[in-house]
Amino acid sequence: MTPEALAAFTIAQTDALIAELSRILAEMNAPGHDHTQDASRLKSARPRILAAVYCLSVYAFDGTDFASDAQQFKTYMTSVRQELTRLHPDWKGPFTLESILQQGVGAYLRDAPNLRELVRSKPDYVFDEEIHAVEKSDDRLALLTLKAKIYILEATRIRAYEPAHAPFARVVRENLRRIADEMTGAN
User: Fold this and answer.
1) pTM assigned to the model
2) Maximum CA extent, the chain
3) How far apart are CA 155 and CA 41, in angstroms?
4) Residue boundaries of the structural domains of the chain
5) Is pLDDT larger for residue 58 or for residue 42?
6) How far is CA 46 from CA 17, 121, 124, 137, 155, in A?
7) Contact present, 113 and 13 (Cβ < 8 Å)
8) Cα 121 vs. chain centroid, distance in angstroms?
9) Residue 30 main-chain phi, psi, to 5 deg
């Protein structure tokens, strides 16, 4: 896959996840539903989702022959980041797209902060059962998806006790796992 194709895939998957989350909010805001949710919350989640999908591509390449040549892989991922930046000429926010992606790499792939530190700083976005299941599994992908879920739900300000939490959490986890499966199948 070319850097341009991976960047386009990353954006398409980000948009697809946002569309799915928007659909959930629309259902919750339908007449006769007890709870309404503000759809503008999703705009702030886009950088977190984009970073998570980007990191899934790095994760998918891990251990492949392609990634074993560190310099070649670094050059390739730099090209992907440059293409993502080119495809977002009107990127707005307090951080550059490059810094958002690098924050994602630190959080999801370098485990900084680790899960316990992240949960201490954002306890309203995760349940103890989720933490225990991931720690018990020792599954890197489960850890990445749980951390992404925490960051994405924090960006949307959907706390664990809100009605939107369960469907959002499920959709985020399922979509990130599906994307990882697609990526590992493509290598």
Assistant:
1) 0.90
2) 57
3) 7
4) 3-186
5) 58
6) 9, 21, 20, 28, 9
7) no
8) 18
9) -65, 150
Tell me the pLDDT tens digit for each residue of 98-120.
999 999 999 999 989 999 999 99
**Burial (Cβ within 10 Å: 0-12, 13-18, ≥19) of residue 88:** middle
Spatial CA neighbour of 155 closest among 41, 52, 51, 54: 41
d(CA 149, CA 185): 23
Block residue for tokens 């926010």: 93
Q: d(Cα 106, Cα 55) in Å, to the nearest integer? A: 10
- Six token digits for residue 62: 């891990």
Q: How far apart are CA 95 and CA 46, in angstroms?
A: 13
**Residue 151, token pair as written in the block:** 């960051």
Output the six-digit token pair for 119: 């949960």
